[in-house]
Records
---
Amino acid sequence: MKKAVLIFVITIFTQNIMAQKKIVQTAGREQLGEFAPEFAHLNDDILFGEVWSRNDLLSLRDRSLVTITSLISQGITDNSLLFHLQSAKNNGITRTEIAETITHTAFYAGWPKAWAAFNLAKSVWAEDIKGDNAKAAFEREMIFPIGEPNAAYARYFTGNSYLARISGTQIPFANVTFEPGCRNHWHIHHADNGGGQMLVGVAGKGWYQEEGKEAVKILPGIVIHIPSDVKHWHGAAADSWFAHLAFEIPGENTSTEWFEPVDDNEYDSLR
């Protein structure tokens, strides 16, 4: 019995050792070996050689997320962050996951820090989007993913749209992408108190219109505040892909009522 237990313990120990991946880092010695040899030793042998190598206790993927979040929170957006973003991609972090991670961090660390991090992340994950078609080219312009076809609401749209849920907690919001000419039908966000919606232009060119008013052009950075109980529509311009963030404003007894499509002639007259 003791022999069996011993074999079992040895087997577990062996598996744990095999699960570890030794991280070899030489940047410290290459860049600071002569000027600061002790720092180079701590960087290469301790930080990476020991701490990062304990990946049987915390995976390289998770260590990358922790490190990136820490650097962004401190406002460090130099080559250090770029290195760890590249490492995160090598460790299995996807484009969608890094976008969600930076978005989540923005609420705790600050919006400008997130913008700076996104600029670096876009360059690291740019090659993940292949192809020369218009959709792929448009996605390369954005810091947020296009997402999947917006099948659940397709009956309320003219043309094809795509939905990427960015955050489902605290302040839920999504990135909505419209192909050229796509727009949603007239609709109203009802609420007994509060409610409504806020749109933030992300990329491309689009339109927003309230019933009885002139259409308003939406460009990147433009914010549209939509009160509750106001009939309206929004979507892409006829000659441009378009994406906006859609923030659902909390309210009491909220609901959305859908109406007729936007008239083709009126839409085609927008310039």
---
Amino acid sequence: MAIQNKMLDLEEIPDYVNLMVYGKSGVGKTRFAGSDDRVVFIAPEDDGTLSAKRAGSKAKQWPVKCWADLIEAKEYFEEQAQSNGTINVNWIVIDSGTEMQQMAMRHILREQKELREYRDIDLPEIQDWQKWYNMFLRVVKEFNALPCNVLWTALVSSSTDEEGNQFLHPAIQGKGYEIAQSFASYMTSYGCMQVKVVPARDAEGNPIEKDGKPVKKEIRQITWKDTGIIQGKDRTGVLAPFTRDLTLKQVRELIQSGPHAVPTNVKESA
């Protein structure tokens, strides 16, 4: 039997991206995630998406209380993709990967408690850990395989490498920072969001002063490049080294425009 030619021209492959933004709680990740049209949050039923709502986001939310809810959402979008060939959203946002990983362990422990009554529902045993890592990373891959853009958020953690250097990375647990690195490796681009204080400038780019002193302002910067202290990467070719105060819509349009339409160095909103 002849083997079918399944080769595609690169131009035929859809340009969907998988992004991940990590940072401290309250830094602005969720607000950023809700700042585009046609966004669906897959997020816990708490006040986590309140910041996006108050910023005027028109996003929808698929409430997630447990791991089974997350799988239900994934399977819904998989069925939609199978039926229609695409998903009618700009972004699916999983907010956050840190919380979803914890839900995965709670799911494993509840399952084990049902199978073995003697098991402590709050105490993982050695065989639970590898299942936890595998189950979480498998679902990350399955979400990222959907025919749409996917954005993950995560909290930030710090570790020390073999040479004693401290660095920031997504707060995903397992095998030191190995599982966090695996999680990040599944992304097209990922970066760390931080609040920075910078000189305020007018529309022409001139520094603003008040009473002879420079005026400062807070901006939210996402560093999409590995700096040694901050882990990041950018396969789109348009986000690194960092973006400042861009909305998710602006980031999407920047990616869609391609590298030739990007201003050099810093990308900032007007």
---
Amino acid sequence: MWIEGAAYIDLGDLSVAPPDLELSDGDYHARHGESKMETLSRCPLFFYVRKTTRKNGLDRGMFVNSRKGVAEARHFDKLWGPVPWTVTTSPNRWLLLESSERTVDKPVLEDQQLHFATESGTHALNVRWGTTGEYIVPEGNFYDNDCRFVTTAPAFKNQNMKFMGKSKIKTGAGFVVRSESPQYLPREYDNMRFKDLEDRQGRPQDYYVPIQYTNAKAMPPVSKATGITLNYPIKGFLITLGMEKTVDTTYNPPTRRNPFAKDLGNYYPELFK
């Protein structure tokens, strides 16, 4: 049930009983006066990192809060999921990544660089002023590139990308982004300090985008146009007719391939400008 990187919702934040999300869209709106998307949009997400110590005899895990961007301990029995989710914002500032030869099992600060490991290897990002990560402003949306969601990165806060922790760097979550041909506006204020900006144009680059800057939102696991209780054959028939939409219980990019793209566009029109 507890899957590393998967998103969960605190039952205290959910204003409806979870079984109600299995109602048809029309029945749900009639009962609650809003869509499933509206209900879920008010709930922060909690991304599972690992198990931690028990408290008051109850099992707990470390989860990254989608709005705070830092791992915190939470009781398992208070959470529901996993749920499908997406992002609704692409921040301007992306942290610059480079490969690292270090072997680390958690985020560490060494020689004015933050190092953290993912499945593809160890990454490093430069530190400015001893407290913030080095960022740049590429053109476009980060989610239009190759993205991998990770829960092993350093945690950051505020618009200046200040990392959390001193001797012990706190854990956060976000996207490792690979752009094969990035472009940068020379007149963008944050880009002006890069003397080699012209050399960077179109050169493949990795970045890191922390989760709290992306306005992550849960999506309904299923959206039904009828009130039928679904078994597999009926479910397949409804999908064929376009009467049901389903998404994996994982990250779903906010592109037009997402079956909830139309709904997302209604609530977050900036996605498809």
---
Amino acid sequence: MQFKSILLLNIVLILIFNTKHLSAQDFQGKAYYFSKSKMNLGRWGARMSEAQKKQVNNRLKNRLEKTYILDFNTTESLFIEEEKVDAISGATDTWGTNFSRGKQYKNILENKLVQAQEFYGKRFLVVDELQTIKWEMGNEVKQIGDYTCFKATAIVPEKELSWYNFSWNQLQSNTTNTNEPDIKLTQIEAWYTLQIPVRNGPAEFWGLPGLILEVSMENTTILCSQIIMNPNDRSKIKAPEKGELINKSDYRATVIEKMSEMRNSYGRRRSRG
């Protein structure tokens, strides 16, 4: 109990000092993140040799390992995935692009998310509220690079973290379940630093008293590899503007409807063949 009180006091003192320091200047930062995901091969994996599993992982490396840039100030951020070229084919992942996170703008003061998505050549501008995350503050501390970080955890519905994505399992559950489906929850572990007291972070994550440098959830970890404070070549933090206006729920429904049409069309062609 005494340790927790001392830790809380230290957090408050650091937060007060850093907030005063940052408010006195035209503050902006650039954070570089990389993510790694483990692929769940399910029943197929049980039939595959280790060599075959390795080959699949190599083929899907661009989808399992990604790099991002987060430009941020005290109230806004712009999160962008860096495009990669496939090391084997020399091409970009066009199929994966349809279900990847687009350029994402977050405004903490306005509780606003603006995200550019492109789905089979059509542009959408997804505008919605920021994802609500009820963080539980922990006592654990660790070092990430030059930054002292504190642990926080939360539980969030899985579909709220990947609303732009799609799997055929989603389509099956939509067509087979007439009742409301069970909500699958995801355990989130985050590490944030009070040395950069902004309530922002990568992807959908925000709301802690310092910049989030690491997030782990199920098979994916997002980790900050570099931070540049007040860079000389400052990027303009501006929300995307092009695309058909839509919210997250309607965008998800649009994608599922389109994929259902594609599946049915493919099934009809096979039956005629």
